[in-house]
Design brief:
The protein is an alpha+beta fold and about 220 residues long. The protein is built from six helices and four strands, in the order αααβαβααββ. It has two domains: about 80 residues; about 100 residues, Alpha-Beta Plaits (2-Layer Sandwich).
Length: about 220
C-alpha cells in the first residue's frame, strides 16, 4: 500500500517538474522574443526617425532653392533687360560695346579654353589704338583642357600667351590702360621695349582666363 502511494506521489512530482520546465521554457522564449522584438522595433523607429528628418531637411532645402530660383530669375531679367549695357552700349546692337550684359559676361570669362578667340579678342582690343599686333604666340590646348570637368565651384584657368606690338611711343605707352579697359581679364607678367620713339616695339608676356562651367551638385544619400 505504501509503495503504491509513493509511486503515485513520484508521478505527480515528475509531472509537476515537467510542467514547470515547460512553463519556464515558454516564459524564457516569450521574454527573449519580447526583448528581440523590442530591440527591432526601437531600431526601426530610430531608422524611420532619421529618414523623416532627412526628408524634412530635403523638403526645406527644396523650398529654399525654389525661392532662390525665383529671386535669381528676377535678378537675371533686371540685369539683362536694360536700355544700356555695363559698357554703355546698346544691348541690341552689333558694335564693339554692344550686346546684353549676360553676353558681355560670357565674353569676359568664357566657359571653354579657346585660344583662337583670345587672339581675336586681342586684335579687336588693339584695333584703332594706333598700335599694330605684329605677332601672338601661345598654346592651343583646347584638347587637353577638355578633361577639365564642370564642378560646383569652378576656378578660373589661365591661358598664357606672348604678343609683340609696335607703334609710336605715345601709342605704345597706353597699352596698360588698353588692357585695363578690357572686359576680359588680363594679367601682364612681363613687358619689355625696344626700338625708337617713333617705332617702338613692346614684347608682352601675359595671360587671360577662362572658367569651366558650373554644375549642379545633385546627390543621393543612403540612410543607415
Amino acid at each position: 500500500m505504501a509503495t503504491k502511494n509513493s509511486n503515485s506521489k513520484r508521478l505527480q512530482i515528475d509531472k509537476a517538474n515537467a510542467s514547470m520546465v515547460i512553463v519556464t521554457a515558454v516564459s524564457s522564449f516569450i521574454v527573449v522574443f519580447s526583448l528581440v522584438a523590442s530591440k527591432a522595433l526601437l531600431s526601426q523607429r530610430s531608422y524611420q526617425s532619421r529618414v523623416i528628418a532627412k526628408k524634412e531637411q530635403a523638403r526645406d532645402q527644396l523650398k529654399e532653392n525654389i525661392d532662390n530660383a525665383k529671386t535669381l530669375n528676377s535678378s537675371y531679367k533686371a540685369f539683362v533687360d536694360t536700355t544700356q549695357n555695363v559698357l554703355g552700349g546698346n544691348p541690341a546692337g552689333q558694335g564693339d560695346r554692344d550686346g546684353n550684359n549676360a553676353q558681355i559676361v560670357l565674353d569676359a570669362l568664357p566657359s571653354t579654353y579657346d585660344f583662337p578667340a583670345v587672339a581675336s579678342s586681342l586684335e579687336k582690343l588693339l584695333g584703332g589704338t594706333g598700335v599694330n599686333l605684329q605677332s601672338m604666340t601661345g598654346t592651343d590646348d583646347e584638347v587637353g583642357q577638355q578633361s577639365v570637368k564642370a564642378s560646383a565651384n569652378p576656378a578660373p584657368v589661365a591661358i598664357p600667351f606672348e604678343a609683340s606690338i609696335s607703334g609710336s611711343y605715345g601709342a605704345v605707352q597706353g597699352i596698360i590702360r588698353i588692357f585695363e579697359a578690357s572686359i576680359r581679364p588680363f594679367t601682364i607678367n612681363k613687358i619689355s621695349f625696344s626700338g625708337s620713339d617713333s617705332n617702338l616695339t613692346a614684347s608682352i608676356s601675359a595671360e587671360t582666363y577662362y572658367q569651366p562651367a558650373t554644375s549642379l551638385d545633385i546627390k543621393t544619400e543612403v540612410i543607415k
